[in-house]
Specification:
This protein is of the alpha/beta class. The chain has nine helices and 14 strands. The strands form four sheets. The protein has a seven-stranded mixed beta sheet with strand order 2-10-9-8-5-3-4. Strands 11-12-14 form a three-stranded antiparallel beta sheet, with helices on one face. A hairpin with a 4-residue loop joins strand 6 and strand 7. The structure holds 4'-deoxy-4'-aminopyridoxal-5'-phosphate (PMP). The site of 4'-deoxy-4'-aminopyridoxal-5'-phosphate has 12 residues, from loops.
């Protein structure tokens, strides 16, 4: 059976060519007679895989040596505890920008380890826009400002970020590598790998080195960024297989022309889908245009009774995982880097047909 188009928010679609390479190497990696899953993370062979992945990730995002790059366990969520533990204190404070579900999850976790100031929020309008940076009320004593530049569930994103005096820490789970960004604007960027990088289980962190070394006493060793930096993400056995696949995704992206080039493709894919939705009589997206995400496109059907039919018919057309998050309902098309333009075109064709048949 051929591969279908997977619009899932994560674990998300991976480049088919990467999966094929992995398949070909799975039982016998580089003629060594064993699988990459079966080799020691301390071996020279694995060290080479790890270094190469880091080198390519640095190249793709133009990350200088003043930043530490980590590949860790625990996806994005573990960082929600690690961030206040490493960069604030029980008496300290941190500012959080409330842009939706994931920002809120980060803030709730941080409250266990520091005091939280809500710098801005768009909750009153049901997160229909990203609070602009000019509206953030960051307290002077904040140790950092936390943002979620792409809200995977709500489908909103922050388009432009300016440097602040206080380090900005950003959850880039669902938008890392999707378009060019200036790493130097941030104290730290982090996220789970399972959207634009590779298999779930892996998380990434890019941390300004001069922020390291101030972790709270209670910080578990495994959650101390300094320890992870000094051990090159190998304080314990890392998620070796996910890291290996991530390395292949980085190579795939470099071969496609890197972040500049995928950024243009991503813009084009998103614009096509939003244009279609805005001009249709059946579908709608209520996010303010200036805040619309190019990675996650939520939409609803004006007649909600058609939801189940839409999902079953789309699956019959080879378009999978279009159901919106349970907290918001409706539909959501996640169109990460590995979703080809043809996937978006196939979705639009189907949506047109469905509209014609059901309106
Ligand atoms: N932040 C964002 C923006 C996300 O989209 C997700 C997962 N969808 C998370 C955090 C949580 O990630 P994980 O499951 O890897 O912990």
């Amino acid at each position: 059976m051929g591969r279908k188009f997977n619009f899932g928010a994560g674990p998300a679609t991976l480049p088919t060519s990467v999966l094929e390479e992995v398949k070909n190497e799975l039982l016998d990696w580089k003629g060594k007679g064993l699988s990459v899953m079966e080799i020691s993370h301390r071996s020279d062979d694995y060290t080479e895989i790890a270094h190469e992945a880091e080198k390519d990730f640095r190249k793709l995002l133009n990350i200088s040596e003043s930043y530490s790059v980590l590949f860790s366990h625990g996806g994005a969520t573990i960082h929600n505890a690690m961030i206040p533990l490493n960069f604030s204190s029980r008496e300290g404070e941190a500012s959080y920008v409330m842009s939706g579900h994931w920002a809120s999850a980060s803030m709730k976790e941080a409250k266990k380890y520091t005091n939280v100031n809500i710098a801005a929020s768009s909750e009153k309008t049901n997160f229909s826009f990203f609070p602009p940076q000019s509206s953030w009320e960051v307290t002077e004593k904040s140790d950092y400002i936390h943002i979620t530049p792409n809200e995977t569930i709500g489908g909103i994103s922050l388009k432009k970020i300016k440097k602040e005096l206080i380090p900005i820490i950003a959850d880039y789970s669902s938008s890392i590598l999707s378009e060019p960004i200036d790493i130097n604007l941030f104290g730290m960027l982090y996220g789970g790998a399972q959207k634009n990088i590779g298999p779930a289980g892996l998380g990434f962190a890019i941390i300004k080195k001069d922020l390291l070394g101030k972790a709270q006493e209670i910080t578990p060793t495994m959650l101390n960024y300094k320890v992870l930096t000094e051990s090159s993400s190998m304080f314990n056995t890392p998620p070796t297989f996910s890291w290996y696949v991530a390395g292949k995704v980085f190579k795939w992206l470099i071969a496609k022309g890197g972040v500049d080039s995928i950024g243009l493709i991503n813009q084009k894919k998103a614009m096509k889908l939003y244009n279609f939705i805005d001009n249709s009589n059946l579908y709608r997206n209520d996010i303010e245009k200036s805040s619309r995400s190019i990675m996650n496109v939520p939409f609803s059907l004006k007649n909600e009774d058609l939801n189940n039919k839409f999902l079953s018919d789309s699956a019959k057309h080879g378009l999978l995982e279009l159901k919106g998050h349970r907290s918001v309902g409706g539909m959501r098309a996640s169109i990460y880097n590995a979703m080809p333009e043809e996937g978006v075109e196939a979705l639009i064709e189907f949506m047109k047909l469905f509209e014609a048949e059901n309106l």
